[in-house]
Structures are given as C-alpha cells and as structure tokens.
Amino acid sequence: MRYVHDLQLLVTLTHPKDDFQEELVIRPLQSGDVYASFQFRTLWETDFMKGNKVSHYRLFPKSLGQVISKFSVRELHISFTQGYWRTMQWGQPFMPSPPGAELWVWFQDSVTDVDGTWKELTNVLSGIFCASLNFIDSTNTVQPSASFKPLGIGNVTDHRFLRYATLPREIVCTENLTPWKKLLPCGSKAGLAVLMKSEKLFHSSFHSQAVHIRPVCQDSECTTTSWELRQTLNVVFDLHTSGQGKREWSLFKMFSRTLTEACPLASSSKIYIDITDNPQVSFLHNILSLKIQAVVLGDRRTFSVYDLTEANTFGSMRSLNLLIRWKSSEGDMLRPLLHAERYVAGYGLQTGEIHTLMYNYHPFRSFPILLLDSVPWYLRLYIHTLTVTSKGKDNKPSYIHYQPSKDRVRPHLLEMLVQLPPNSVTEVTVQFERALLKWTEYTPDPNHGFYVGSSVISALVPSMVAMDTNNTKERPLFSSFFPCKEESSYFVRIYTEPLLVNLPTPDFSMPYNVICLTCTVVAVGYGSLYNLLTRSFQIEEPNPRLAKRIANVIRRLRGVPPLA
Amino acid sequence: MATTEVERRRGQLAALSIAAVVIIIGVPLWWRTTETYRAWLPVSQIQELANLELQLSADVEVVFARGTVTPEQQKKIPLTLSQDDEHVVDEDTSLRYRYETRYRTATIMEEDALNQPTAAEADLSLHMLSESPCGSLVVYVVPESTSLLPEDVEVYIGQRRTALLRIGTQMRVGRTLDQLLDHLEPRIKKLLQLMSFSHTDITAALSDRVRLSPGNKESIADSMRAFKSSPGYEITFSLLNPDPKSHRLHWDIEGAVQTFIQPLLTKLEPLANFSIDSQILYYAMLGVNPRFDNSHNAYTLNADSLAHVINPVEARLGSNAASSNPVLNFLLYVPDANHSPLYIQDRKKQQVPSNAFHSPRWGGIMVYNVNSFYGPDVAFPVDININMAKVMGVFLAQLRLLLGVQSSTPPPGFLVAPCGSSGLADWELDRLMWSRSVENIATATTTITSLAQLLDQIGNIVINDNIAQQVSSAVTSLQLAVAELESGNLGFALQYSKEAILASERAFFDPSLLHLLYFPDDQKFAIYIPLFLPMCVPILLSLLKIASEVRQRRRDKQTKTD
What we know:
Chain A: It comes from Sphaeramia orbicularis. The complex is a heterodimer. Chain A has ten helices and 26 strands. By secondary structure, chain A is of the alpha+beta class. In chain A, the strands form five sheets. An eleven-stranded mixed β-sheet of chain A has the order 5-6-4-3-7-8-2-1-10-13-12, covered by helices on one side. By secondary structure, chain B is an alpha/beta fold. Helices cover 45% and strands 19% of the residues of chain B. Chain B has helices at residues 2-34, 43-50, 71-76, 108-114, 119-129, 177-195, 199-205, 217-225, 253-267, 310-317, 388-403, 426-457, 465-487, 490-508, 521-561; strands at 52-64, 79-90, 93-105, 137-142, 155-157, 162-166, 232-241, 247-250, 273-282, 291-293, 298-301, 327-333, 342-344, 356-359, 363-367, 382-385, 414-416. In chain B, the strands form four sheets. Chain B has a seven-stranded mixed β-sheet with strand order 2-3-1-4-6-5-17, with helices on both faces. Chain B has a five-stranded mixed β-sheet with strand order 9-7-12-15-14, with helices on one face. Chain B has a three-stranded mixed β-sheet with strand order 10-11-13, with no helix packed on it. In chain B, helix 1 (2-34) packs antiparallel against helix 15 (521-561) and helix 9 (253-267) runs parallel beside helix 11 (388-403). The relative contact order of chain B is 0.12. Chain A binds chain B through residues 5-6, 8-9, 12-13, 55-59, 61-63, 66-67, 69-70, 124, 127-128, 182, 185-187, 189-190, 261, 264-265, 512, 515-516, 519-520, 522-524, 526-527, 530-531, 533-538, and chain B through 3-4, 7-8, 10-12, 14-15, 18, 236, 244-245, 250, 253-254, 275-280, 282-283, 316, 318-322, 381, 383, 385, 526-527, 530-531, 534-535, 538-539, 542.
C-alpha cells in the first residue's frame, strides 16, 4: 500500500503541473542609488486557449485565473509605477514601465465584443488591485497597430484584439501592494517577499510593480504550452541621501528585514548582485557565492549569485543579510544607447507644441524606432504641423499611423517608424490647441493641470556584445522577458515623461453667476416693458417748488394765506 | 378724462393678456421641460401581488394493491378527493395547500412490481413502469402480510416519488371504504408533509416577506443555515496548508469533484447553476491558537472559538472575480506540524467525529490531521496524499445542509431509502423545489413592491423604459409562477419564479435610478427664484389691482342703483 502511494507520488512529482521561481537582482547604480528588482514567475502547464474550463488552482492565483478564462485574455500586462525612471542616471530598467498605471491586453480572437469585454475587465482588475483602473474608458484607450506585439507565443497581428491604456495620474501606494503580494503563493510569509515592507518600499525614488501574464512554450520544441505569470517589483533606493554619503548597503538597511528561508514552494530562489561596475566590493559575510556572467540589455554583466534553496547560504546565523561596501565610483556607467524626453512648449492657454526628443548614442549604427503617442482629445493635435528632424534635416518617417481623436469618445493615436541616425538627436514636434471642457468634465483640482501619458518608444537596439539566444544558460529571470531572436540586437522599450498641461479653467461658481446675471437682465428688460405696456400715462401738473412749499409752511404757521 | 380712462383700460388689458400668456404658455412649457421621465408601471398589479395568496397543489395518487380492499370497496374506488388546508400567515400573506388525491387499484404490472423481494427493487421497477411528474407523489398501499417491508416498518419512502404504505393491523376486511380512507389518512398526510412540503418549510421560505414570530428556535436555525435562493452558486474548495515546509500536500480535487460532487449538482440543475473551482492556499493560518489538551495528547479547538476561525482565513480566500453569485466555501485545513493533531470539540467537550464544522450561509471547514503519516523517523517535508473520499463525504453532507436539503428525522415507523449515487432522492429535490419556488416568489414580490413604493415616494427618480419593462416582466413572471403553483406544475413554477427574481433584481439595482435622486429642492429654487420672482411679482400685483378695481366699480354701481 505504501509502495503504491509512493509510486503515485513519483508520478505526480515527475510531471510538475506548475512551477514557481523567485529572484532578486540588486545593482548598485552609478549615482549612489541602489536598484533592487524582484521577480516571481509562476508557470502553469494548462491550456486556456482550447476553451476547456480550468478551475483547479495550485500555485497560480485563482482570482487572476478566473479573470483570464472569463474574459478570454491571451496576454495581460499591468504595471503601477510611482516616480520616473531616470535613464541617463540609472541606465536601462530591467522591466520598463511608465509613471502611473499602464494596462495592455491582447484578447483571444474568439471575443466578439472586445470593447465591452475590455470595460468589464478593467472594472474587475480595478477591484483586484485596488486601483482606479475603472477610469479607463474609450477616451484613454487606444489600439496600437505596431508598438505592442504579443510577448508570448502566437503570432497575432490583428490589433483589433489589443487594447492599451495608461492612467498617468494614478498614485501607487500600500493598498496596491497588498493585493499584489497576495497573488504570490507564499504571500509575504516566506521567501524573498519577506523583504517587501511597504514603509521601506515606498520610501524610495522609484517604485514599480507589475503583473505580466502570457502563454509561453514549456520547452524549445514548443510541444506543451503553459501560462506564465510574472510578478515584478522594481525599487530604486536613494541611499545617498539616507546613507550619510557612505557607499554601502545591506539587505537590512534597505528593507529592514533579513532573509531566513526560501519560499518552500519555489523551485529556484536566488539573489543576484551585479558586481560588474565595482569588482572590488567587500562583502561582510564570507558566504559562498557563485559568479556568473550574463548578457543583459546589450551588456555583459557579472553577478554573484546566492542560492537560497541551499542551507549553507544562510550560514550559522540562520539568516542572510548581505552587506556590501564599495569604493567611490571610478568606473563609467555604460551610457544607454537610446534615450528620450518630452516636453510641452508654447505660452498662453490656447495653443502649444509637444516636443519629443530621441537620442541615439550609438557611435556608428543607425536603427529604427517605433514611437507611440496617445494624446487625450482635449489637446487637439494639428497633424499637419508634425515635423521630424534629425541633425537639422527633415527625417521622413517610413510608417505613420494616425487616428484622429473624436471629442469625448477617443484619443489621438500617433505611431511612427523613425530611423535614428548614429549619434544624433531626433526631434518630433506637433502643435496642438487646448479645448474648452464642459464644466463637469474638469477634475476636482483643474488648476493642477491635465496629464498626458508617456510616449512609448520600442526599438531593437544594436548590441555591443553578442546576445544570448539560447535560453539554457543560467541567467537572471528578467532577461528572458522580452524575446530575443538574434544576437546582434536586443529589444528595448522606453517611456518618456508624462506631460502636465494646463487647460483654460473657468471660475466654477460661474454657472450660478451667469444664471443670476441673465435672470436680472431679463427681469429688468421685462420689467420696463411690462411697465410700458400696463401703466396708464397722464399729464400731471408740475409740483410747486421746494422753496415755495417751505415758504407756504412758514406762512401757514404765521396765519398768512399761502402763495398760489 | 376719457383718454385717461381709455389708457387705463388698455393697461389693464395688457396686464391681463400678459398674465394669460404666462399661464397658458409659460407654465405648461416650464412644467413639460423640467418634468422627470417616468415610464408607466403596472402599479395595480403590483399592489395585487403585495397581497399574496399562494396556493400549492400537489397531485397524490393512492394505489391499492391486491389484498387491501374488498371487492365491493373496489367497485367504488376510482374516485378523486381534494383536501384544502388554509393558513393565514400575516395580513398580506395567506397560504392554501391543496392535495388532489386520486384513489385507484393497482394495475397488473404494478402488482408484478410489488411482488419483488425487497422494497428497493420494488421501488425501482415501479419507477420503470411510469415516471411521475415533478411535484407529484404515488403511495402504494400494500397488504399487512407483505414481505416487502421489515416487521416494524409502516411506511417505506423510496428514492423516487413513490412510497409504500402498510395497511394497518386493525383494518379488517368488511368495513366501508370511507372508514378505510379515514384510517389511512393521518399516515398519508404525515407522508405528504415529509415528501412534498410542510407548513414549517413554507413559512421559513416566506421569511423574506413575513417577520417570523420567534417560535421554534430549531426551525429558525435550520432556515438560516441554508443559502438564500439564487440563480447560481459558486462552490470553492480550498486546501489550507499553513506549513508548506513540513507538508507537501497532494489532493486529487478534480477526480473527487467528478465522483462525489458532480452527481449531486447534476441532479440539482433545475434549481440553479453551479460552478466549482478549487485552490491551494499556503501559509493560511486560523485566527485562533488551539489549546493543548493533555488528556487527549492533542490540540483542541473548542466550540466557542470556532466563530473566530473564519475571518482571517477569509481575507486570503479572495472574492470571485468572475460572477456575483453567492460563494460556498469549503476549506480543508491541514494543521502545521507543531499543532498536530488538532481536534474540534463540541460544547460537551467531546471530540467531533467528523472533525469539521460549518458556518451558516458561508461554508464548511474540515480539519485533516496528517500526523499519522509522520512515522518514526520523519524527514520533513512529508509528501501526503489526502484521502479525498473521507473529505468529500464531510463536504457533501455540509453542501446538502447549506443548499437546504433537509434530512429531517422521519417519524417512527417510517423508513427512508438511502439515497443513491446522486446523493439526493427525487422527492428531496421536489421538496427543495417547493420551498425554493415559494422563496423566490416571496423575494421577488418584496423587491417589486418595495421598488414601487420607493418610486412612488421619491418623485425625482427617472423611470426608464428599460426599468418599466423589467418591472412588468417580473410581474408577469410572478403571476405565471403563482398560477403554475396553483395548478401543480412545479417545474414551470420554479422556472418562472427564477425569471421573476432576476428581472426584479435587475430593475431594483439599475444604476439609472440613482441619477437624479440627489437633486435637492433648495438648489432648484436657488436657480428659479432670480428669474421667476421679478417676473411674477408685477403680474400678481397688477392682477390684484385689477381685481380690487373691479370690486370697487361693482360696489359703486350698487350704490348708484340703490
């Protein structure tokens, strides 16, 4: 009996239906800040696509699984970000995300009413993540034609099934982190998630948390497919201001916790520390660590790896607190090859101009980029004023997809394929006019301004070193997020700053004032007309003068007959 | 003098005509343009429904087997009787139960069926002969000497809609048929109350309409345990593993659901739609610390602390994102290695044999101890395969309770056949359908009448055509459901009552009802006054002046004639 038992177990164990991995990548940044990137990946070998209802969940969170199957979602990417990623100081982020909330979803082609499903989906997600995603409606949703390709398997190109929306104003805080942590199999009870203490995570320069769901292949031949759920959390700690200028950090200092165990459900649980820029770092603990080299984002990096599933990682203290000091920054940070920024120019409250600057720092290679701009309808773009210039010359985009806005219905969508010449700045400008809103359409604090979401730049950037195209080599999880098909280039998506635009705002007691004023004017006009019509006019003898009347009073007192 | 008089008359005429224009054109225009749209509602029919007279009719067939009636009784036999039973529940609600009883003698085929060796086989072959429709019953009166029933059993209730009734001992051949029927009647009535509907069930189902008098505590507890009637339910099985470091749990939930739960749900399909899912939650703790009991060498949870167990767990369960139907939660808790074994104690400090408890209208929790797997030299983590038959047995019993399938103890002398693979006998389903139809009707009528009241009281609410349509479809479905109950078509009655409840809820919770609800009168007047006051005052004053002048002139004329 016992034997049969064990045999059964063996069978279930050799076919793991789902798999969970966790990792933390820490990279000391050139500016003295520390970048910590958590990534949790759940793989679930199942098939939603074929329409069979899956309802038994193990590691995959039930709430998300229900959402995927109810709304026939093929891919779902959602991110909540507080702060702006400073590419020029910090380099490329591992997982790019725009400030505020971003949501993009590919639906399966069996969905007939995509807009209705999208609306319902955003409402459900807003409940799951305690966020204002329910403010996503047709006025801030676009269907990009080229910028957002599915990241998982399946070569879908019909962008009718894609919806993309951003809420640049969304503020991310603890109430969004708690439901996000709840989706992890171990919660925040064990494993790397123990470090996620919200008062530390939100006391940072940059905070971004995301959920990515997509179908992936289980193996290189793609015989079985599975769902992949990636939960990522990226934080940049500003240790330079809090750390008294000393270049040192430790897990305890950053998170006010130390690690004692891996999540028992995780098949792999690792900490990667990027020591490329500072090979002379000194570690407090003399813990065995592995050094690996991996090519990430077009750069060869050296990581020292701590495997939490091994007991001797924790040493005799039974707790892991990495403490690292390093000397001042001599080494040069590899300057990101692609960088972009955006601002609004112009004065007054009638017209303006959006400038988008894109920098290609590659010394000799030019490469194409896809620029996506989604502008709300209340900035009326004059598309005929669109100019693209690089190095003082007109740079004609090879592909332009423009969808004009409709007032109160849909935003502008502008997508362009632009070739960036080597070592150059390319400037895209377009003029706009500010619309006057109806008085109920203004936000509660209209003088703060109105946000325009980041523009998205997607590009295949030529790599300085050969990229890894086989996935067998050990490397951090995050580097396998964007599919890499060739050695010579790697995919990069960068987001510009969101814009804050002032719109002409009225005085909000105006409607009542207008009502009162017009009523008064009408009443005065009507009153005199009424008087004219109804009064009877007759000639009256002029009144005796004042002096005469006084004289008469006096005369009466004296008993003299009054004046006539 | 004459010119001033003409002038005055012209002024008066002008004032009068302006007043006329304002009254004839202005006022109706203002009224029309500021009126809220209110579609027509079937108010009189709703008021009729507020006064609910429900009649439940059940068809009963009493079949006399050979040897129970004498030939001269047999001649009179094909007859029909109907019995009415009236109850007034409160001033607006009255109930009437009607049993249409048909008496006949058994056919030859039925005699053959009754000659089977056991009651269960007889039950099955009688079922094969003819299938009685939903809501009806067939009672076979078998002779005293029958071998079908055990010695002390008077009545046997089968798995379908049939029952076998032993004709009493004191019944000798030769009495009149009326006496025979009088003799059978009390037992048949008891049987009917068990197999179709009883007054307590139906009044419990009416609890939405009628405030129950605090009478029988037990029956109130019973009625509060079951979930409210709903067109669908979500059943969620959760395995709580607070200690994944020591226990690696495996449960074959898919197979277990297929074998144990699905047959019952298939049977219950006419009642509601069910969807099942399951999840495993790690590091999910109970809200209370179990106490160590030296006498049992085990940890115990006593009955008082059970109330505090659920809340912290519920935060982890997650709400159902995909539907708004009520969720039935079934939790299987495997205590961590340090708090194992864990037993639930009842109020008498006795261990509960099933080691499980349920929470009314929420779900059930079962504690599954795994310390027997540890063995002498235990190396954590331990792989544990959960015995799903044991777990599902408990959960199935809880599910029956929570769905309102009452397994009330039969009166002495009654034998209830064990329910088969589906876990639910046909008559149990009928019983549930009776009370669910009544409950749906009660809920829908209260929803509709309170909506009508609300709309009547608050004149600002806009009533869309859509809402009006939902209301009238709810009203028609309700009327149909009541009519079907009256004619004894239980299946249709349930169907219509479900439609009624859906339509009435849709109308009641329609967001468009809220739009103008908060448009207060003082703000309206703040906008009206600057326009209306300066316009109306001169008109009113000149009208007053004209009236007083007319009166003055009349008085002058009177004095002149005098």
